[in-house]
Write a structure and sequence with these properties.
- The chain has 410 residues and is an alpha+beta fold.
- It folds into two domains: 4-247 and 396-407, no CATH class; 251-371, Conserved hypothetical protein from pyrococcus furiosus pfu- 392566-001, domain 2.
- The protein is built from 13 helices and 21 strands.
- Strands 1, 4, 5, 6, 8, 9, 10, 11 and 12 form a nine-stranded mixed β-sheet that branches. Strands 15-17-16-19-14-18 form a six-stranded antiparallel β-sheet, with helices on both faces.
- α6 crosses α9.
- The protein is globular.
Length: 410
Amino acid sequence: MSLISPFPALRPAPGRADDVVAPPYDVLNSAEARERAAGKPYSFLHISKPEIDLPEGIDPYDPAVYAKAAENLRRMIDDGVLVRDEKPCYYAYRLTMGDHVQTGLVAGASVADYDSNRIRKHEFTRPAKEDDRVRQIEAVNAETGPVLLAYPDAPEVDRILAEATQGEPAIDVTADDGVRHTLWVIDDEATIAALTEAFDAMHAIYIADGHHRSAAGSRVCANRGGVGNPAAPQYFLSVIFPHHQMKILDYNRVVRDLNGLTPETLLEQVRERFEVEPMDAPVQPGEPGEFGMYLDGRWYRLRIRPELIPENDPVRRLDVSLLADNLIEPLLGISDPRRDERIDFVGGIRGLGELEKRVDSGEMAVAFSLFPTRMEDLMAVADANEVMPPKSTWFEPKLADGLVSLMLDG
């Protein structure tokens, strides 16, 4: 069985992409989704966040929510808003956000290779979120939220995708956030075979974002008979980009209190493990091992002392680990950032001004800006079969929901 497979996508009919394309299901809460979909009967949010069509306050895990998703998907197909390609294809997908451009491949990714860790993971999953995705997939009989994957250096794949994007796109739409989503159909049999062969030659591909969706794809396959059973879906929906094109933003930290320390005492203790330099402007770290700290109305540039960076540990040498192990846990007393409500996380897309705002308001006592995790570091962690600390990566731009879906009935 190949690492990837073409499939006949369910996608917006010509001229309907503007009506359909929506943000990913997990970047909006129910209230935000309800507002975003107002006046848009064919927004994909009616499938990915179907509680917006039910009474406010309904539990998003209520069986009625999944039933509404199935009903809404069937309606959009019956109304001709979503149509399915007649034959299995690959699709080139380009994301454009300002000056940043990345072009990847929409494909089915092998459940067997996910189960064997050839499709590599770097995060734990939470059972409740996995269960939610399984129920959604089973209810609509489709995978509607693509998993974001990365492939290692593969010039031949890059070349094929560059060639495929020379023609007229099937879909070209700019979303509300200004991100442009462009899709080309790859239906030439020789090109499909070349892409399949090129991916089969890879030792691994890597999950960037979508651990719950990929785990759910594996579980649905197992529920329906397992790998190798013709009745079970052998592939899950994915978009695979070259790792060197992907953009990871900083994922910053804010902490509610100083664990009983005064700002002066905290600074004194920080100096034992970091070089500390007061700054007159917000600190955007420019390299690994460098951090910004906003404390008591003042920014500081912190540099971890080199002897504190582990040489051969791909997890503990990450900046998120260095900050946690040398400051947030020993000085601020936060040992479990997954559960400790004293810490919160701020995606870099919101800017350093958001860190200042959270501290100046009195809601938080201190903020830290980090250098973005690099794709090479993510891949090293996955290759070592290790797990990254929570909130290590913030990928931008986000994939759209509704652009391409994979139906499970053949």
